[in-house]
């Protein structure tokens, strides 16, 4: 089975194309299923749109859901369209996100850590002048958040679990047992991690997570899924077959997709 669970579109303010363009791209790629998972609004904020260019307005979310459900129906005999969302994991925002997201018939929620110490991990400036001590602190905080997101019970998928390396590749070499601890927690909770192929668009190159993390994940029995994190329709399904081959190589035998928040295991 060919699928991609992580895609965005123009509502978030930094992706290109309408939802339907991504569905059509998925058909072009011969996918069996396409998950739409745009960035959720910042539900914990008092503002209607806390960060234009990063996430959609709150009032836009019901329209997003309607749009995806309409396409689910329209393309039902050609491709399975899944309704997802990528939600920020912010400890202070958990309750508001939960309250809002439970109103919608989501097939899955991707929980992603995009912030540590109040700053976006993809903000290149935050890494300027950081020494090993700083990197160690950020890395420990980041993987603690990843573990906490797994324990929250709010997510079917954890997004790009080592994205902290995106614009700071050298953080990969900082040693801490928090990575191992997070993987053990994820395995206990049986939340899926995605192989997210968008790392190649960032300074770190390659995919999230790195191969050694995937090997440890396999060892602990962490479930996996696949997402391109496409912000342009041409990236839908990017590296899908390479991911499948790599996962098999490592020792995984199945990957998961989700319908109505229930995992569906598919042989690799
Ligand atoms: Zn994005
Ligand atoms: Zn993300």
TrEMBL record:
PANTHER family, per the entry: HISTIDINOL PHOSPHATASE-RELATED, HISTIDINOL-PHOSPHATASE
What does the record give as its pathway? Amino-acid biosynthesis; L-histidine biosynthesis; L-histidine from 5-phospho-alpha-D-ribose 1-diphosphate: step 8/9
Which family does the entry's similarity section mention?
Answer: Belongs to the PHP hydrolase family. HisK subfamily.
Any one GO CC term of this protein is: cytoplasm
Which Pfam families does the record associate with it? PHP (PF02811)
Q: Which GO terms describe its biological process?
A: L-histidine biosynthetic process
State if Nucleotidyltransferase is listed as a keyword.
Answer: no
Q: Which SUPFAM superfamilies match?
A: PHP domain-like
Q: Which UniProt keywords apply?
A: Amino-acid biosynthesis, Histidine biosynthesis, Hydrolase
**Record's protein name:** Histidinol-phosphatase
Q: What is its EC number?
A: 3.1.3.15
Question: Which reactions is this enzyme annotated as catalysing?
Answer: L-histidinol phosphate + H2O = L-histidinol + phosphate
Query: Which GO MF terms are attached to this record?
Result: histidinol-phosphatase activity
The EC class name is: hydrolase
Q: Where is each Polymerase/histidinol phosphatase N-terminal domain found?
A: 3-91
């Amino acid at each position: 089975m060919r699928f991609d669970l992580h895609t965005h579109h123009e509502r978030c303010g930094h992706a290109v194309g309408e939802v339907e363009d991504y569905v059509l791209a998925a058909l072009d790629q011969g996918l069996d299923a396409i998950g739409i998972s745009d960035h959720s609004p910042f539900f914990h904020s008092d503002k209607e749109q806390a960060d234009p260019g990063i996430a959609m307005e709150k009032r836009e979310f019901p329209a997003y859901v309607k749009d995806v459900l309409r396409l689910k129906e329209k393309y039902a005999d050609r491709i399975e369209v899944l309704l997802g969302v990528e939600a920020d994991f912010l400890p202070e925002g958990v309750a508001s996100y939960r309250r809002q997201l439970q109103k919608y018939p989501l097939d899955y929620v991707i929980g992603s850590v995009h912030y540590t110490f109040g700053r976006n991990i993809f903000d290149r400036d935050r890494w300027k002048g950081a020494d090993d001590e700083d990197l160690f602190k950020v890395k420990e905080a980041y993987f603690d958040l990843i573990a906490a997101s797994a324990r929250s019970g709010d997510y079917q998928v954890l997004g790009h679990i080592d994205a902290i390396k995106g614009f700071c590749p050298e953080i990969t070499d900082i040693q801490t047992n928090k990575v191992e601890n997070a993987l053990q927690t994820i395995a206990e909770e049986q939340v899926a991690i995605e192989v997210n192929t968008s790392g190649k668009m960032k300074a770190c190159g390659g995919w999230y997570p790195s191969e050694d993390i995937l090997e440890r994940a396999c060892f602990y029995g962490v479930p996996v899924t696949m997402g391109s994190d496409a912000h342009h329709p041409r990236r839908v399904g990017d590296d899908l077959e390479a991911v499948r081959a790599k996962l098999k190589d490592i020792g995984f035998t199945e990957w998961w997709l989700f319908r109505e928040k229930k995992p569906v295991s598919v042989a690799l």
